[in-house]
Specification:
Layout lengths: L2 H33 L6 H15 L11 H22 L9 H23 L4 E2 L9 E3 L5 E3 H23 L1 H11 L1 H6 L4 H26 L2 E2 L6 H12 L4 H26 L3 H16 L14
Antiparallel strand pairs: 1-4, 2-3
Length: 304
């Protein structure tokens, strides 16, 4: 395979991986955009979505065997419901409290999810059902193929980014969410239900993140505990694109996916294994130094 073909193959893998990352990243940005909270449990929510399919499809703990497609649907519904439950039980009580308090809560949630999965199901990897391991691919140039999970990631991420952009720009609820993100107290004075906006943002975010976790597991043939580590890569992606920008999260995640694959293929053989995950972190440091608000983030100016 020529150098150009090899580079194109690395590029395609990075594009597919970045597209899947973008689903998790857009979930992260959705919460921050509406509530101002940095959700440090985002990687754990992706892990939870990936594990739920592995648990529901074959009879594991609860002796419930669902068709693989139905297990995916149930996982997404669980993600939506989990967002509602979290708002009712936890986040409703933190309205008006310092954002730092909510951030600490998300750290605790991440620990609970990780510990819960480890306690009930162990840290062993779990293979996905054969019906979720697609054998088709999309043929591209130079004999390079985009495998099924990456192709689905690209298609779904494009649908989600366009849908969210249209939602925030053209719908009444989207305008309400934008108003809340700008000034929650002013929105409350105007009669906006802050609780409802928080419910909506968390429910949609966790559902999208679950889909990202499932696709990430599909790309690896099954779920593993390492999926929650994607959270730190997602943070690099959203910082690069802008913490409150949906399209910025999409582009940032694509860049992170490309950097990871380039680092793994070209740099890791020289400097050592694992450099693929290091390269996006270097990007994170540079972006924070040069562009603290990212490519498309809103610059906030506060009077001292």
């Amino acid at each position: 395979m020529s150098n150009i073909a090899t580079f194109f193959e690395v590029f395609v893998r990075g594009l597919g991986l970045g597209a899947i990352y973008s689903l998790v990243a857009m979930g992260f940005v959705l919460i921050y955009k509406v509530t101002g909270v940095l959700n440090f449990a985002q990687g754990q929510f992706a892990l939870l979505g990936a594990y739920l399919v592995a648990i529901l499809a074959p009879p594991a703990l609860i002796f419930l065997e669902l068709p693989a497609a139905l297990a995916v649907v149930v996982t997404i519904v669980v993600g939506l419901l989990l967002g509602v439950v979290l708002e009712r039980v936890i986040f409703r009580h933190f309205i008006g409290e310092p954002v730092l308090s909510v951030i600490i809560v998300t750290l605790a949630l991440g620990g609970i999810i990780t510990g819960g999965i480890q306690f009930f199901f162990g840290r062993d990897s779990r293979a996905y059902p054969a019906t979720l391991q697609f054998d088709w691919s999309v043929p591209l140039l130079f004999g390079v193929d985009l495998n099924a999970s990456f192709a689905l990631g690209v298609a779904l991420s494009l649908v989600v980014v366009l849908a969210l952009m249209a939602f925030f720009r053209y719908t009444v609820m989207g305008s309400i969410l934008r108003a809340c993100s700008s000034d929650q107290q002013a929105a409350m004075v105007l009669g906006v239900s802050i609780e409802r906006t928080i419910v909506l943002s968390w429910a949609i975010s966790i559902a999208i993140t679950s889909v990202g976790g499932i696709l990430l597991a599909m790309s690896q043939g099954g779920t593993s505990f390492g999926i929650y580590g994607v959270g730190i890569l997602i943070f690099a992606a959203v910082v690069f694109g802008g913490l409150d920008s949906i399209p910025g999260a999409f582009i940032g995640a694509i860049v992170v996916g490309l950097l990871q694959e380039v680092g793994d293929y070209y740099v890791a053989p020289v400097v050592g294994a694992g450099f693929g995950e290091v390269l996006p972190m270097l990007l994170l440091v540079v972006v924070i130094l040069v562009m603290p608000y990212g490519l498309f983030g809103t610059e906030r100016i506060e009077r001292l």
